[in-house]
Write a structure and sequence with these properties.
Layout: H1 3-14, H2 18-26, H3 28-31, H4 40-53, H5 58-70, H6 76-89, H7 93-101, H8 104-113, H9 122-125, H10 127-141, H11 145-148, H12 151-166, H13 174-188, H14 192-200, H15 203-211, H16 218-234, H17 244-262, H18 266-286
Helix pairs in contact: 1-4, 5-6, 6-10, 8-10, 10-13, 12-13, 13-16, 15-16, 16-18, 17-18
Length: 288
């Protein structure tokens, strides 16, 4: 059941009268032909539920929030709230596709990520807008093959991600760097087209650069370690990495050796071990 309707259902149960329900059940045979009028309390509950359900259609809510985003005069707070509301809606794949169909993702990418619309300064004034925009796009793409393969994401979004990976030292924002890692995973998950592009455009090299950067914290490195692990998992049935796995193995071993000795974060340690395991399995399976 939809969580929202579950909440309404729970509210109705909490405000019902169990004893009265039992009495009604026992008298069903006698009163089955006689509809029973609602009590005043039941009317109040019903009216409350109807009122709460008004205007809660997800597509309607999405459009309302898109109108806020489309207005370049909207404040930063209004924009952030609208992006957050949309992110809640597009956790369902069908609604993520609807957002794309409405050109909402195109607007978000062009205005808040690539920043090619010069008159819209919101993501320049406050990088939280860029951060929230990345979250929405990441949610839309997660395990969503219908969107992952589209030109908007394979070209414009990919170029944005690649450019930031190459020039990550210019970001000066650790949260943004982590969110870029999240989006890399969402675009690649179970998607061979993206995985091939990651190989062709040397994305692994840029990720390894981040893992070797002593100035970055372990939380960021854990995110990018998962990027590699996700690529290996996504390639289980395709073997797109091919002989590139040997280069990855040779470059990853010294990083893993350092991490296994020195890291404090348990999740980073676990991911490092899993990457080593998957690399070894991949090499053995393909005789590399």
């Amino acid at each position: 059941m939809n969580p929202y309707y579950q909440q309404l259902f729970n509210f109705a149960i909490q405000h019902s009268n169990p004893e009265e329900l039992r009495n009604q059940a026992s008298n069903t045979n006698e009163q089955s032909q006689q509809p029973q009028p609602l009590t005043e309390h039941q009317k109040e509950v019903l009216e409350y539920m109807i009122e709460q359900m008004k205007g809660k259609d997800p597509i309607k809510l999405m459009k309302e929030n898109l109108n806020i985003i489309y207005n370049i005069e909207s404040t930063i707070d209004e924009t952030l709230t609208a992006l957050e509301n949309i992110d809640d809606i597009v956790t369902k794949i069908d609604f993520a596709i609807d957002l794309d169909t409405l050109n909402g993702t195109k607007f978000i990418i062009e205005h808040f990520l690539t920043k090619e619309i010069e008159e819209d300064k919101r993501s320049i004034i406050d990088n939280e807008v860029e951060l929230f925009a990345l979250q929405v796009i990441s949610t839309c793409l997660h395990n969503n093959s219908n969107l992952q393969v589209k030109e908007l994401y394979q070209n414009k979004l990919f170029n944005y991600l690649e450019n930031n990976l190459i020039n990550y030292k210019n970001l000066n924002n650790n949260n943004l760097l982590k969110k870029i890692g999240t989006c890399l995973v969402s675009l690649c998950s179970n998607q061979p087209i993206t995985l091939q592009k990651y190989i062709d455009r040397n994305i692994l090299k840029y990720i390894l650069n981040i893992l070797q950067d002593d100035t970055l914290n372990e939380q960021i490195k854990s995110k990018y370690m998962f990027c590699i692990l996700n690529m290996l998992y996504s390639d289980e049935n395709y073997f797109i990495l091919g002989k590139e796995i040997n280069n990855l193995w040779n470059e990853f071993k010294p990083i893993a050796t350092t991490f296994l000795k020195d890291v404090n974060r348990k999740d980073l340690l676990e991911k490092t071990i899993l990457v080593l395991r998957e690399l070894n399995i991949y090499k053995e399976k393909n005789n590399y």
